Each structure stands twice: as C-alpha cells, then as structure tokens.
C-alpha cells in the first residue's frame, strides 16, 4: 500500500555572527590539516618527501591526505616503509605471507595461521602465546612494523635460524607491489583473506573514526567516507583492484596463493581451517581430527575469545613508533552489519559498482 510523506521545511536565516563562526571553524580546520601534514613530513626521508611532491593526493580518512603510489592509495609514512620493504626484503622459500585489505579479518587470520603452524610447539592451549600476546605481535606487519620509519630490520633477530617453522609476515600491500622475490618464488605461500565490500567499508569507517586525531576537524561522516570508498580512495585501494589482484593470482597459481573469504570462514570455520592447514603444508592428521584439534584452534582464535583476553582489552602495540590500543581491533566481527548503516541509495550504488568492477572475474560475495 503506497504511503505519502510530507516534509515540512522552515526558512533559516544565518546571522553574521553564525557566518563568522562557520568561517572561523573552516579556517581552524584548514590550519590543523596543514600543521598535521607538516608534522608527518618531518618524519620522512628526503627521498620520500621529493616523491610525494610528484604523486596525486586526495583527502585522507585519518591523515590529511592519501597519496596514489604505484596505483593504490596510502599514507605518506606507509609509502616510505613500502619502499624500504621493496628494496631490502628477501624472501625465503618457506615464507608465508598473509595479505588483506584493511578491516577484512586480518587479526583473525594472523591468530589462525600462527596457531596452525605452531600447534606442535604449543599443544597445551592453556599456555598458548595467543592468550598473552596480540596476534599482530606474533605475526608482524611488513609495512606497519618491520620496515616502518625507513628502518631495515635484521630478520634473523625476529625469526632465529634455530626456529624450524616458516617465517610469517602480514601485509596490506597489493599483489603487484609485493617485493619481487615474493612474487617470483614458486614456494613462498600467500594467504589472502577477502571480506565483502559492504562490511569492509562499515568496519573501516568505524575504525578510522576511533583513530582519527583530534587535531583534524570533525569526524569523518558516513556520507563522505562512502563517496571516497566508491571512488577507490581508501587505504591500499581501490578495494576492487586489491581484491582482484590476489584473486587472479590465486586462479593462475593456486598452489602459491590461497584466496579465502571471511563469510565462508564464519559459516564453516573447520572446513576452511583444514584447507588452510593443507595449503600451508601443515595438514591435520587423522589423530588430530579425532582429538578435535581443529575445533580447539577455531575456539582459541575465535573473535569472542580474542576480544575477551586481557591483552586485547587493555594491551597496546607499537606501529610507526606510536602506541596502538589493541581493543580498537575488535568491534563486532559479524557478517551483514552494513544493513544498520547504509541507506537504499548507498546499497544500490555500491552494488552497481561491484557488478561493474567484478564483471567477468567470477569473484562473488555473500553480503548477509
């Protein structure tokens, strides 16, 4: 049954005082953005500063600007660390790389892979490192931690030679920008976790507003963030190019790149864990399956379990020499939360964008 809606409008007069205040707020915001940008530039190498001057830039989500580097968008300090990673990292044949676009289940994937690979060392889950350490401390980010601030780490100190397990790293870097030895190796394993773009967007928007510095004007509105997201201007985006980059590689080299979907893992974690373990070269034995080891790992690494650990409620980690509160990594961890935020017009716009960008790729998503 059709219904009519009547919208009553009233005229609003903006007084000179209100106009002055709005202008002052705008000026203050512009000054804050400029000061924040200058502060970030001080931390960069001269090489990186000169590079940034030549790159396209757009308004950032939690920094003054995002820069388009090698076809994707990222912060200035990330560009510096990615360049250092590309120049100095050398892979080993047994390396495992965890790749995601931000807010796609990275923390969860790190916990799962760490638990799978190290399950013989830490068979007693009561003393497991995941109970006292955030997954990001156990599986370090290449660009956020190891190569941050233009440093060149000695990876033998991170992964001692007497450690008989593979080195595990994480990254948000798109596939074409991975260091060459990772791409060229036939044995380096890459695990990509993909989440449907609707939930990825909402999770990103919440997360960024928690981290957005007070020095920047206002919070990032849902409408502004959505427009940027659909234009591809989001950290390590456009999201469709990031996802398709790893998707296409997984089709060409399934023995090298495993493409997992967040929604499938939430629906059937045990089957996905078995597939992941086999891909990594650590399959579950018949005896382990009989003893429910797979289920124990799923429980240990579940969102609910990780969120309630003290280390993830009050602990802090270091990224780019700044402390980061672990609790900010855990919000809801569910599928379909976007329905509580996006209006029909937004849903239609993002749906059409996905249909256009993913056409012919065979990549599809469960969004509810």
UniProtKB/TrEMBL annotation:
Broad class of enzyme this protein falls into: transferase
Swiss-Prot/TrEMBL keywords: Transferase
Highest taxon above the source species: Eukaryota
UniProt domain Sulfotransferase: residue ranges: 94-361
Transferase among keywords: yes
GO molecular function, one term: sulfotransferase activity
EC number: 2.8.2.-
Signal peptide: none
PANTHER family according to UniProt: SULFOTRANSFERASE SULT
Family: Belongs to the sulfotransferase 1 family.
Protein name: Sulfotransferase
């Amino acid at each position: 049954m059709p219904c009519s809606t009547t919208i009553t409008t009233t005229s609003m007069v903006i007084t000179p005082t209100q106009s002055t205040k709005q202008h002052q707020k705008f000026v203050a915001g512009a000054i804050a953005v400029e000061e924040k940008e200058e502060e970030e530039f001080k931390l960069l190498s001269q090489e990186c500063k000169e590079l940034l001057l030549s790159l396209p830039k757009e308004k950032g989500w939690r920094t003054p600007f995002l820069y388009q580097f090698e076809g994707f968008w990222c912060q200035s300090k990330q560009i510096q660390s990615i360049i250092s990673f590309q120049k100095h990292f050398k892979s080993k044949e047994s390396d495992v790389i965890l790749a995601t676009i931000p807010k796609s289940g990275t923390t969860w994937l790190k916990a799962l892979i760490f638990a799978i690979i190290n399950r013989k060392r830490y068979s007693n889950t009561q003393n497991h490192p995941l109970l006292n350490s955030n997954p990001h401390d156990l599986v370090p980010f290449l660009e956020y931690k190891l190569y941050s601030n233009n440093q060149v780490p000695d990876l033998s100190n991170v992964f001692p030679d007497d450690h008989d397990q593979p080195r595990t790293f994480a990254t948000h870097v798109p596939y074409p920008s991975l260091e060459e030895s990772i791409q060229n190796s036939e044995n380096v394993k890459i695990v990509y976790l993909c989440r449907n773009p609707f939930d990825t967007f909402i999770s990103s928007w919440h997360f960024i507003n928690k981290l957005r510095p007070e020095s920047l004007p206002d919070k990032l509105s849902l409408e502004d963030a959505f427009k940027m997201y659909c234009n591809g201007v989001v950290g390590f985006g456009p999201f469709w190019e990031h996802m398709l980059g790893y998707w296409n590689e997984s089709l060409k080299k399934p023995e090298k790149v495993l493409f997992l979907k967040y929604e499938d893992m939430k629906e059937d974690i045990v089957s996905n864990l078995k597939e992941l373990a086999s891909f990594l070269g650590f399959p579950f034995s018949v005896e382990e399956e009989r003893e429910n080891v797979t289920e124990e790992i799923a429980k240990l690494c579940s969102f609910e379990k990780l969120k309630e650990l003290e280390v993830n409620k009050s602990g802090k980690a270091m990224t780019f020499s700044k402390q980061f509160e672990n609790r900010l990594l855990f919000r809801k961890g569910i599928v379909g939360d976007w329905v509580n935020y996006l209006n029909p017009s937004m849903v239609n716009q993002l749906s059409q964008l996905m249909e256009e960008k993913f056409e012919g790729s065979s990549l599809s998503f469960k969004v509810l």
